From TrEMBL:
Belongs to the glycosyl hydrolase 63 family. This is Amylo-alpha-1,6-glucosidase. Residues 242-548 form the Mannosylglycerate hydrolase MGH1-like glycoside hydrolase domain. InterPro entries: 6-hairpin_glycosidase_sf (IPR008928), 6hp_glycosidase-like_sf (IPR012341), Glycoside_hydrolase_63 (IPR004888), MGH1-like_GH (IPR054491).
């Protein structure tokens, strides 16, 4: 697969390194993703040179190799691969490769041993070792009191053959033996091929989407470090390089059947840092844990789905551990997000819902929302079943009673004149805007709703939200609908999957299959973007998102026959 690295970063499984084209300048950048998406990631500009002068080049990029080819002399090139999680290997023929540091005051490069230079990257709290393995290198790094005035490292300045390594580490460089470039490249190529082979098989029409989704999910994993207790699948290596606590559920689902240990790790990273109050962090990276917001309680549903895909998750110790964590997470909502037992839990910010700027939040917060109540009711119902499985009969009865009470409150407070509404909690009044798809989320507890109500919700879904490429997040006839409006219209993968799953569970199989097919078609137009235009299919915001990729692969697994029949 040939890749445009202006949209899709070149990286690999386990690595904090990435290469991208700067969207404004077109400059090739070597990036480091430590510190999460609030930290600048560009660390070096990368330039192809000949006789000390920059030359035009074309990029030839596959999943595992990045080659800069001299535009006028294609037999001359420089090639890079991320051979190991913390190691970049490079080789070149007939041209030079120059790396110019985008440094802060204290970032400094110093000679280490012959043919080696250590770069202290203060802003990232890491070190890089540059090792010349063959050929020549020119280092331009004049010192000025507390740091280098500039840093430019030019490999192969005389245009012959050259190879090198760049390694990342926290404290001390560990001496290693270097194999030749071809062997190093083969390691990463085989690693990706093994990942790709484990991805679900799809009809030929959707093979481009399968390959793109497979690469994005593989390349967006980072290795355990700092706050990350295990391998974490970041949401993207473009701009959102953290792991979020509902995005992780969809990625875990995709991984469950074939990579159960990695799937479970996506949940356990948040379980390991669960607050004493029970709340899961909003996001985590190697350096930071943020509790500023949280995410909707879909985690018990996700774990139940994982159990259906792989018996590994039915092991009693795993069930007991997850139950304990989910119990505390659920009690957080019941004890810390409601004013009293006569009101429902609230979202304190749009970001808590995952639907950051949805129209129900335009009049202020906190908000009583039917999606939160529905997710909680389903989570509590699942906890009741898990408690029975674990022999905790008293807890099971308590959960069942709580779910019944919560359902009663949902219908009493948020079901008005045949439709679900949201309430602005401080004034206990119904929110005026009723055009958000979030108000139809009680479909996830269709097993509790009267059939005629479920039918009505599904009809509203079809009439007001179904577009050529899927379901809009704001009604098409809403005055608040906005092109590229984030949660005010565009299609989102996780919401699509939640509704498709709910429709299937309630017997609307034909509609579920049709929406699955629409989403798969959408990826052929808009790729694996963060969200999509409902009418053109254009990918919006971040063009390389993991939960979009995971949802595509999940739908491909579940609806392959239906899709094949239509294709």
């Amino acid at each position: 697969m040939n890749m445009n690295i202006a949209d899709i970063p070149f990286s690999r499984y386990g690595s904090y390194f990435a290469f991208s084209l700067d969207r404004k300048t077109g400059q090739l950048m070597l990036r480091d993703l430590h510190g999460g998406d609030e930290a600048p990631s560009n660390i070096f500009e990368v330039c192809l040179m000949q006789n000390g002068v920059p030359v035009d080049y074309d990029l030839d990029v596959t999943e595992t190799r990045l080659r800069l080819v001299h535009r006028n002399q294609p037999e001359q090139w420089a090639e890079l691969c991320i051979s190991d999680e913390d190691v970049i290997r490079g080789m070149m023929n007939g041209v030079s490769l120059q790396l110019t540091a985008l440094k802060s005051r204290y970032d400094s490069l110093m000679p280490y041993r012959e043919g080696q230079w250590e770069y202290h990257l203060y802003t990232k709290e890491i070190k890089l070792m540059f090792t010349l393995l063959r050929g020549e290198v020119d280092v331009d790094a004049p010192w000025s009191t507390v740091g280098n005035e500039r840093i430019a490292i030019t490999f192969n300045p005389n245009g012959r053959k050259c190879s090198f390594a760049i390694e990342s580490y926290k404290t001390v460089w560990m001496r290693r033996e270097y194999d030749d470039y071809s062997a190093a490249y083969e390691r990463v190529r085989q690693h990706y091929e093994q990942w790709l082979q484990q991805m679900t098989i799809v009809p030929d029409r959707f093979e481009p989407s399968r390959q793109l989704a497979s690469y994005i999910t593989w390349s967006c994993v980072v290795h355990p470090e700092g706050q990350l207790t295990d391998y974490a699948m970041y949401m993207s290596k473009n701009w959102m390089f953290n792991i979020w606590s509902w995005d992780n559920c969809f990625n875990a689902l995709m991984l469950s059947k074939r990579r159960p240990e990695l799937a479970l790790a996506q949940l356990e990273i948040f379980m390991a840092h669960q607050d004493h109050s029970g709340i899961y962090a909003d996001f985590i990276n190697d350096k930071f844990i943020s509790f500023n917001c949280c995410k909707p309680p879909i985690h018990a549903w996700a774990f139940t789905q994982m159990r259906q895909q792989n018996a590994k998750f039915n092991e009693p110790a795993i069930v007991a551990n997850v139950y304990d964590s989910l119990k505390r997470a659920t009690n957080y909502w019941l004890e810390h997000r409601r004013s009293d037992s006569y009101h429902l839990p609230v979202y304190n910010h749009g970001n808590d819902s995952g639907w950051d700027n949805a129209s129900i939040f335009h009049e202020g917060v906190p908000v009583e929302s039917p999606d939160l109540a529905a997710h909680l009711i389903r989570q509590i119902d699942i906890l009741s079943d898990m408690a029975v499985e674990l022999g905790l009969m008293d807890e099971a009865k308590k959960w069942s009673k709580t779910a019944d009470e919560m359902y009663g409150l949902l219908m009493e407070r948020l079901y008005v004149d045949g439709t679900f509404v949201a309430r602005y909690a401080p004034e206990d009044r119904i929110i005026e805007h009723q055009g958000s798809l979030i108000l139809l989320m009680p479909l996830v507890i269709g097993y509790r709703l009267p059939p005629e109500l479920t039918d009505r919700l599904v009809q509203v879904l079809i009439d007001k939200f179904e577009a050529p490429y899927g379901i809009c997040t704001e009604s098409m006839d809403s005055p608040l609908y906005k092109d590229n409006g984030y949660w005010l219209g565009p299609i989102w993968a996780p919401v699509s999957y939640l509704f498709i799953d709910a429709l299937q569970n309630n017997g609307y199989n034909e509609l579920a299959a049709a929406l699955a097919h629409k989403f798969m078609e959408l990826t052929l137009v808009g790729g694996m973007a963060e969200n999509f235009d409902p009418f053109s299919g254009k990918g919006l915001v971040d063009p390389a998102f993991t939960w979009t990729s995971s949802v595509f692969l999940l739908l491909a697994e579940q609806f392959a026959m239906a899709v094949n029949g239509k294709g």
